[in-house]
Amino acid sequence: MAAARDAGPAARVTTLSFDPARVPFSRAGAWMALTLLTEEVWGRVGFKGAPRLALRVLHGDAPDYGRAIDLTPLYDGDCRYEADAERLRIVADTGVIEFAFRDARTLVVSGEGLGLRLEASQVIWYDNLQPDGPDGWTWMASAFRSEFKLRALSGQIAADAPWTGMRADHIRVYAGGDGLPWVLEIGETWWRASEPAPIPHSWADWLARIPAVPAEWEAARQLAAYVGWSALVEPQGHFTRPAMLMSKNWMASVWSWDHCFNALALAPIDAGLAWDQYRLPFDLQASDGRLPDQANDRRLFWNFVKPPVHGWTLRRLIETGVVSDEKLAWIYSRLAAWTEWWMRDRGGDAGLPFYRHGNDSGWDNATPFKIGMPVAGPDLAAMLVIQMDVLGEVAAGLGRLDEAEAWRARADTLLARLIERLWTGETFVARRVSDGAVHASDSLVAVIPIILGERLPAAILAALVAKIGEPGRFLCSAGLATEALTSPQHESDGYWRGPVWAPTTLLVVEGLRAVGERALAHDIARRFCETCARSGMAENFDAVTRAPLRDHAYSWTASVFLLLAASLR
Prior knowledge:
Layout: E1 32-37, H1 39-42, E2 52-57, E3 67-74, E4 80-83, E5 88-91, E6 96-103, E7 106-112, E8 115-120, E9 128-131, E10 136-141, E11 146-154, E12 157-160, E13 172-175, E14 182-188, H2 203-209, H3 218-230, E15 232-233, E16 243-244, E17 254-255, H4 258-266, H5 271-283, E18 294-295, E19 300-301, H6 310-319, H7 325-345, H8 358-361, E20 375-376, H9 378-397, H10 401-422, E21 431-432, H11 458-469, E22 475-476, E23 479-480, H12 502-514, H13 518-535, E24 540-541, E25 548-549, H14 555-567
Antiparallel strand pairs: 1-2, 2-3, 3-8, 4-5, 5-6, 6-7, 7-14, 8-13, 9-10, 10-11, 11-14, 12-13, 15-16, 17-18, 18-19, 20-21, 22-23, 24-25
Helix pairs in contact: 3-14, 4-5, 4-6, 4-14, 6-9, 7-9, 9-10, 12-13, 12-14, 13-14
């Protein structure tokens, strides 16, 4: 393939457009999003019926995936929905309605020749709409614990919300029913002790900061940039710093390994935001060292955890210059406590650390876990070896030489156990803790120890490289299948039983590069980037057809695309 000319940032023009059923319309900082709900995309999470545009709030306890206000054009014919990074439009034969964010908390809706009905998706508890000044209303959406301020800026705006004594019977607002131009402002009320600094990047500024990629992937670069930028939310509740949600579709939280991949992609864009993403779960760390499985502004989830990829990530952030000495001093004790939790509470000191559920691994339903839990996984031990190595490096840099030596010794011991107990002579396996049994499967999890690089013996490295590079096994049109294509347990839409995922792709590619297998790493990265360019920034992809699966606007996919595409220039 001929080398493609890079599209430099100064020469680029924003040409982004997207389907608002698959990619939500929002902006950096906002906890609101507009989504065209369709059964094709949203049927997976329970939506039924004719397509409808909805204003959604993304707070962690919002019901019905945050669908607060239904937005229906006052028109009997077909309408067209168009979106780009700065506006969403409803286009009909008679006119147009346009939505645009004035700032992170204010949505401006304008129309000409076409009216709009705004209706509460549900009215329960104490929901009501009350006049608020001569041209405004306060809309209480109690099921969402949200309040909106509506203000008529021009044109005909009318409210219909009959009071029952405790709440409104229904809530509807009509804009532009006379066909004349109108403008309505919708603001979400925020309650907080102090105002956070707004996220400082406009869309144009953000796009200009995104590293260059090969020219044929420029449209994908812009989409990936938008998915990441628009997934940011301002600090609120449990989030005391800006957070990049995994998606503003239905995966509107932060999971405690997903954030690491977003932090890496943010490093060349905004070092402060990169560090914010990395330290988010450490802000919420339990006293025993455990990190939450999942976090959003209103809820923390502790029944699972996520794998300790944090040492691996920290090493890369250090290499990019994101982490100052002060930050290293802050993270050292917290990363050490997280590591000790695995070694103390999950069996590492007694032998090999284990998962109590596939969800703990991030590979929720991967085939090795069919054997029954708990399971000692080769990926887990490998990540902890790296984490101890990194803790040793940081401790040495902080002048804590005895601790540095202790971490290195513990890493060596765990590495020896990994090889002794989970290497069969041909492959790594995951073993049930109770009796050492193994489920017969062919999961990509077995090659994740490639991240150890030269820490592994040459014979093991050669076997892993051969397994990764074998055509038609894991290596597929979309990148790397999570269950081998040749496995009878491969499922095309099986979550971690077949589809291609971003984080595992990056881990393997980086591992291959570290041991000099750059051609194979390049090939895998190219396949994955071409998949994203073709199918968008989905949560995962069919390994054969490259079809986008599950959530169609996932920030870690966008982040990994940007990292890999920039590396292929």
